[in-house]
Amino acid sequence: MTQAPISLNRRGLMFVLSSPSGAGKTTMSRKLLSQQDNISMSVSVTTRAMRPGEVDGKDYFFIDKAKYDTMVERNELLEHAEVFGNHYGTPKAYAEAHLRNGEDVLFDIDWQGTKQLRATAPNDLVSVFILPPSLPELERRLRARAQDSEEVVQKRMEKAISEISHWTEYDYVIVNQDLDAALVKITSILHAERLKRERQEGLGAFIEALK
Ligand code: 5GP
């Protein structure tokens, strides 16, 4: 007789990917989301201008500073930070609803936001820092995507060095030399973290039933 598959209740986890821009984080997030079940992207709000090709509500919720200030005042953001002179924040409602349902949420946020999440929800947070294979390669990737002005590229390169200095604040660090290899590593982290005893809330009842 075949038995019904055993499924144990689990807490959703907050899966944070951070990196200097251009290290391949966006591509990796998209691939991870398309390959894995039970994980979805947290779409941040931002006050920065939309880049060509970006879609409101998909890449970001593009809002003005007044709306952003209201969200901060009303405590509607899980974390928020200023990056490159623009404001960014993670809407609270989306993440909380999914985590409660045992669904994982992926966050593309910087080290400042990661620090805030670690302070408020240390048990739910899994943080991964993605490094470029070298700084010249990072600069090449930034230029190749041709989304930013020369001035912004230079500013991002300067920022990259200071962002990289926060690598010790992360649970995992991955060098993205080869996209597919890096993706395998990130997927392994996600799968192992999902199996952590503390996240498997249904284990107690399961063990009781075993006895
Ligand atoms: P970009 O403007 O290139 O999309 O993003 C710039 C930086 O802001 C990236 O490092 C990205 O991870 C970070 N970022 C995007 N959304 C958020 C957010 O909601 N909170 C924080 N703290 N950082 C964010």
Task: Walk me through the structure.
It is a single chain. The chain is of the alpha/beta class and 211 residues long. The chain has a single domain, classed as Rossmann fold. Helix content is 42%, strand content 19%. The chain is built from eight helices and nine strands. The chain has a five-stranded parallel beta sheet with strand order 2-7-1-8-9, sandwiched between helices. The chain has a four-stranded mixed beta sheet with strand order 4-3-6-5. The chain is globular and about 65 Å long. Bound molecules: guanosine-5'-monophosphate. Residues 18, 21, 44, 48, 79, 81, 83, 88-90, 108-110, 112-113 line the site of guanosine-5'-monophosphate.
